[in-house]
UniProtKB/TrEMBL annotation:
Matches recorded under Gene3D superfamilies: MFS general substrate transporter like domains
UniProt name for this protein: MFS transporter
Pfam families membership: MFS_1
Species for this entry: Brevibacterium pityocampae
Keyword tags: Membrane, Transmembrane, Transmembrane helix
Lineage start: Bacteria, Bacillati, Actinomycetota, Actinomycetes, Micrococcales
Subcellular location: Cell membrane
Start and end residues of each Major facilitator superfamily (MFS) profile domain: 1-401
Major localization listed first in the record, in broad terms: membrane
Domain of life: Bacteria
Membrane topology: Multi-pass membrane protein
Length: 410
């Protein structure tokens, strides 16, 4: 079956398997995001401070950083389903391992394996979109996919907070982590639904090698670097919020449930923006909207340590969440349109590798800043990166053709 025929056939069967993909995405991201907040609390519970917290956060992305591009090559060769199954297993087992962990060392190992599961499920799931649907439909499909991500956050974080309790010495962190492991196991029946997608041809290694472009050649495509940098800065900001808002909460008297509520507000705002992304990209030029999203998120990050009151933080979470909700699907669409079909999963994996690099380097830098400076300094660092990304997008974000980004991507 040719690629175009596969896309057409896949489109006819789309409602079944694509709906299953959204449900699957919701489930695994509920587990990922609930666990990541709980892992922060478990680290603190085991005696780790701000520096250890930054190290734990970085381990989530260390192995995926090295594996993302080879995973993308396998997906481009038609092995998305096996990659997704492996990612499912590496979501469920490490979730249980993190819940069982008696010390920081085991928690670090489980967190790293969980990060590997996340990159496997993410690369394979994202790559199914450009492999299955027309370019004119990518914004909407990626937007819907990332609504599943945000909905998972909206479910996972409050459930984790509800089970863990009100915080402090009374928090029940480990039972909440076991609950997240149970949620992760629900991904298996959703995965079965995804397998209804029509099978694709597995490309032999020799044939694939003839059409493969190197990562450096891909990065040299005009528009690729600003898109990836915007994604990197945004995902690092999300991680900084998730990992360090509990620390802000502890310093200023906000319990587990209050912090979970703030993170949920951010997630709900992301859902709203992702549901409206098609309309927004028709009203505002693509690169201008992307730059405004980075700018808004950066300003929100800079203001978090200035007024750490609940209602102020709630407003900032809504603003940042709306901005973050736009950035990720827009950059997915953009990099996908800059690649030929034989390298689309590789391009998405390079974008993801950039995200993971930011998740290793920036939390590590944040750990140093937090260890030797005020707690709020990590938010200032992340906010400054987002402002830089806004400038990079505005100045160097034009696509490689003569058409405008809005015309090219809508």
């Amino acid at each position: 079956m040719t690629a175009s025929a596969a896309r057409a056939h896949s489109g006819r069967r789309g409602p079944g398997w694509f709906t299953a993909l959204i449900v699957y995405t919701l489930i695994v991201h509920a587990a990922y995001n609930g666990l990541r907040v709980l892992i922060s609390y478990r680290t603190l519970e085991l005696g780790g401070g701000a520096g250890v917290l930054g190290l734990v956060t970085a381990t989530y992305s260390l192995a995926p950083l090295l594996a993302a591009i080879p995973i993308g090559r396998w997906v481009d060769r038609g092995y998305a389903m096996p990659v997704m199954w492996i990612g499912t297993v590496l979501t469920i087992l490490p979730a249980a391992g993190a819940a069982w962990s008696p010390g920081v060392a085991v928690l670090l190992a489980a967190n790293m394996a969980l990060g590997m599961g996340q990159v496997l499920t993410t690369v394979s799931g994202q790559a199914l979109i450009p492999q299955s649907f027309a370019q004119s439909d990518l914004n909407r499909r990626f937007g819907t996919l990332t609504v599943g991500v945000s909905a998972g956050q909206a479910v996972g974080v409050p459930v984790a907070g509800l089970i863990a309790g009100t915080g402090g010495a009374d928090a029940h962190v480990q039972p909440a982590m076991w609950a997240m492991a149970g949620i992760a196991a629900l991904a298996v029946p959703a995965m079965v639904g995804i397998t209804r997608r029509p099978a694709v041809r597995h490309v032999p290694r020799a044939e694939a090698r003839s059409s493969v472009r190197s990562p450096l050649a891909i990065l040299g495509t005009r528009g690729m670097k600003p898109a990836i940098f915007a994604s990197m800065a945004t995902l690092a900001a999300v991680d900084i919020m998730t990992a360090y808002l509990p620390l802000i909460g502890q310093r200023y008297g906000l319990g587990v449930q209050a912090v979970a509520a703030l993170l949920t507000l951010r997630t709900l705002a992301s859902i709203v923006s992702r549901l409206s992304i098609g309309r927004l990209t028709r009203l505002v030029p693509f690169t201008r909207l992307l730059a405004l999203a980075s700018l808004t998120g950066g300003i929100a990050l800079l203001l978090i340590p200035v007024q750490p009151r609940f209602w102020v933080l709630a407003i900032l979470m809504v603003a940042a969440g709306f901005a973050f909700g736009l950035t990720q699907p827009m950059t997915m669409t953009w990099v996908s349109t800059l690649a030929d079909p034989a390298n689309r999963a590789a391009v998405l994996s390079i974008r993801l590798a950039g995200n993971r690099l930011s998740q290793v380097v920036i939390p590590a830098a944040a750990a140093g800043v937090a260890a030797f400076g005020p707690t709020g300094a990590v938010f200032l660092l992340s906010g400054a990166l987002l402002l830089t990304a806004a400038g990079s997008t505005a100045l160097r974000g034009a696509p490689p053709t003569g058409s405008s980004p809005r015309e090219r991507l809508d």
